[in-house]
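Structure tokens please, single chain.
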Amino acid sequence: MFIDMKTRLTALALVVLLALSVLSVSAAATEETLFERYIPINQAYSASVNPFSVTEGASYTFMIGTRFKDENKNMTFSDPLKRKDLQGYYFKLTCKGTFGALDKAEMMKAFSINENSYLLAMDDPSVERYANYHKLYGADTIIISIDLYDADKKFVQNVSPASAIMATGPDGEFLTFSMPQNYYNSIFFSTQDNILKPTEDRSSNSGRALHFTVKHLWPEEKGVAESLLASAGGQVEEFKYEYKQYPAVSGKKQYMTNNILSVNEFITPDNTYYQVGHKDGDIDPIVVNKIENVVGYSEYGQVLDAGYTRRSVLTADGTLYGVTTKYEKTVLATGVKQAGKAHYLTRGGEVKEIIGGKTIATDCKAFAEHRYATVIAVLKNDDSCYLGYTYLAAENAYSKGLSKVLDKAKAVVAGGVCGADNKFYRWKEEVIRKGYDEAAWSRGEFIQYNDYQLSLELLTDNAVRVFPNEYFTAEESTAEDAMTGFVVNGDGHMWAFGLQNMFDMGELGLIKHIFPIYQHKGNGLMDNGNFVGLLPEENSKPYGLVANHCSMNRPKVGVLPVDYLTDVPGGFKALDGYTYAFDNDVNDGSAGRRFKMKPTEFHYLEDKNEIFKALDTSTNPVGNLILLPNVARSSYHADNQNGNTILLERTDGSMWMTQIYPRASASNIVAKLGGWECSNAIQITEPTTKQTATVDYVDLVSSGTISTLFNLGGAAEYPETSVGAPYITSDFYTQILPKDADQMHKDGKSFLLLICKQDCSYCKKIQPYMQTAIDREKIPVYGCMDENGSVQFYWDFVTGNTVGTPLFVLVKGKDDVEIYSSAYTNTAVDVVLAKAKAAGVTAGNTPTTPTEPAEKAKIPTDKLSVSEYEWEVLRIANRERHANGLPALSMPAALQDSCDIREPELATLFDHTRPNGERPYTAIAQLFKHSYVGENIACGQTTPAMVMEDWMNSPGHRANILRNSFGYMGVGCLNEPTKYWVQMFSDVEGYTSVTTSAGTMHFASVADMEKEYLVCTDKNGVESYLPIDTAIMKKNGNAYSLALTGRTVALTVGEEKPLAFDDVKPTDWFAESVAWALKIGITVGTSETTFSPNATCTRAQIITFLWRALGSPKTGAANSFADVKPTDYYYESAIWANKMGMVTGITFDGNTPCTRASTVTYLWKNAGAPKTEVTSVFTDVPANAEYAQAVAWALANKITNGTSETTFSPDNTCTRGQIVTFLKNTLK
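Here you go.
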């Protein structure tokens, strides 16, 4: 069935944009029972469970593994049962009875409990129950035993003499509880085989996180247990489901059409509210609530219970609806003017509490609640403002009521109030600790007594715009001291504010949109906190705001490098088609990280193509399901991993939905769906050209005033800041503003820029030597002082690496910028000044005079994820190997990718064990073939030379670098103030071809040769790369040879000589073409003195000449010709010609003479086979000949004029002189 589905899906992928098609999935009927049934070992997993956190109806995360023993949790059996050794085995469950009916001593031993706990479970009234007591199991809880049987269903051993069924899911999955001696242990029985692969040998403490929705907790009815694993004994109906494939939409694209409120709620441009959801038993989601004529809503939902919230929605007729996460819709009130989370304002001016209906203020025209609705401000009809706590706050705070805080206000917003004079104040809360309850402490409880006071704090005098419903925290912040709003004044100065905190963000200009890029709270070693994007009015390049341990928990603002297009959860989609976000797996706290989807994120919006896909990540290789094309954005995020109905907005303005079914929590549904983890895309609304009028700010002045203040529509201006005190005093140092440096860059000038921080200890330490070195070298330097942690440069000079100060920026022209980060050593300063001098930045050539940038050696950054530092480590390593008589190492993409994975892991755990407990070599892609591997790691070295020196001085690391069996090496450098380094080695079977990045093995000079790099292809088709370095090559005349694993390659150098072939005269018609062919490396002649222009050219020669002229492109395709061997000089070009459709069939026939007709046909196909009108110019070219269009094209493009005015001579063989002439005329 799966093979057929894969075949159909491949076909559908080809026509998905052309027509609606259908893909069917079906499952056969089954009949099963639970007790006394043999459950395959591959449906069972060891589990690490915390029962105190489990509540019925909630989704619950736990860890599973394939080893039925947890090293840290002590299950009853002494030897670990490894599932990979138990393939074909079974578990068998036996119902023993109920907890209270079984032997007391046996139960106490099985569940590792004492007498008191046993009596509590039995509801003995004589036993005292503490306030924090959680009952786990009771007298009627079902107890089972678990036995292991072999493949022949013979008894092996008892696994658990007594376990309770702790929790069951809606899909029939369940957890057993109390593998004795520790209540955290359990076994998870799934309805699906192999959630983890049978060969994965893992215990639950190093396994995989699953999400389990609890339907029954500690079931006491045997019927509930018997129905588990789809085992009610009845017949399961055959399941059928059809996946629809939708055509593309055309027309002008638009984004942010609808106002998306949450993962499953939105409001259309015509003000209709939709809530979508899913009902048990259905596959597809549905619209569960729809409200028309919406005029207001609460930004946040009020928590009614754990996992249960309610949003307020207000309609034009004054009806206030409450819509809950359980899909309930009720009328909360009528005659309403303004909706809030916990309050509403009536048309009569009363502010009332939603729960209870109590009036807390009268004669009001507006109110505003804090994000948590614990604080409220009301604006009276006389413009006075009152502030106080709500019924959701502490009772002693609520009882104080509302107090006047301002006589004249023009607006109240969540977290702040704007006075009539446009002064903006934040609500300021002071928490006064009053001690704790000592009696409670003696009982093991902690009760803190606090008093609370509210006041206003002035932020700015001339506020113009406020964003009241945002959220931003630093890494160590709490919900209480989070900043929940931003305000901008008439100078473009911005502040973030909250109840217990505020932050002066400096001058950012007028912001028009704020979006959360990433929200995370996890391991203390990772980037925690809320990362926020700020979109300016004057351009589309957002700012990024972050505060975490990498920014010393101080908020930091940087300019994101690409133009904003639309919001997506966790980031923003940019005009370049990619999605951007802060990469939380990199500990740098910097802005502008490209968001790379991880394999576990099975649903995603594909970059560039705007297609929403379902990506299968299981062992069932069903491939990708293209769910819906032309998706502008979705509400899917990693937070939806437990399963949700999510929204898809298309570029035509229509809204769609799909139901997410993560394999971890809905494995049986996924199995029914053929492996895909979502439902069809279901259309909700029709396309529209309207767009939402919703904005996330409140303007405090008129639009005309804002336009005047910020010159909207005019040229963008830089915020003026102080140059600051000079970092050093020197005739060669000038301190400037960032905008001045930017202008010089835009003007194409060359200069050296030094960036320092006022509070940087490295800057202070290196300052004396910096001044001495600049005076000594007489290098003019411009300087910028960074006072707030982010100098704002308006060109993208940082391309993916963390920068540390002091930082040099060497600008050698408009498109040539080099970064030298963390230049805090004497050597580092000297290196940069030498680079600047070499680039022409000297006292005699000031930075105001553009200079020609020196050409750098090429690095294959378009082929590999490799930096200059990493490339230099490879160069130095090969020099060490050459010195020890060993072949050079090359760098394949697979090992570079593994090093990219290991870099951030080393910052988390500096060890040869990965943070997930696996060996480091598991970071290497499985498709990369290797027999031997090795890893070197290091920390703290600042340069490639330093780290290589330390490695070579360490016997173990040196042995890896000089190991003869290694031929490949990857290098990683996590470029932070504390650098982490890694080398990953493996063997190589040998190379089938080697060329250079220039496509030729001959160069005019050594300097030209060393600017290129080698491109090696091994027997498995894997390409790898290494620098061309004469220090590791043997010189013989004008030839340089390099030893690689199993192969020696030769490169030649020499000045370009004038044409010196005895058989080519300057007056010959082909002389110019021969010179051109020699110059670009198509051919070197038949000998040192002959070109043989009249010799017949073979098919192999013309194909190879053309291939070389095009840069010797690699195809990665397999060789389909029976007569072409890897040792043939035309091996690669023949494969290329087959791939391009120039030569087909099972033989290449390379030695066949090439005719004029076949030559122009090759050239015509290479040009894309353009349609050309065939005229009867040549009498020997029939109009229906297969080469007729090629001849007509060659004539039209002046590639050939024929052999006479009326003949083309298609069957005549081509000479070498004719071939190079054809090529020159074609490629001119």
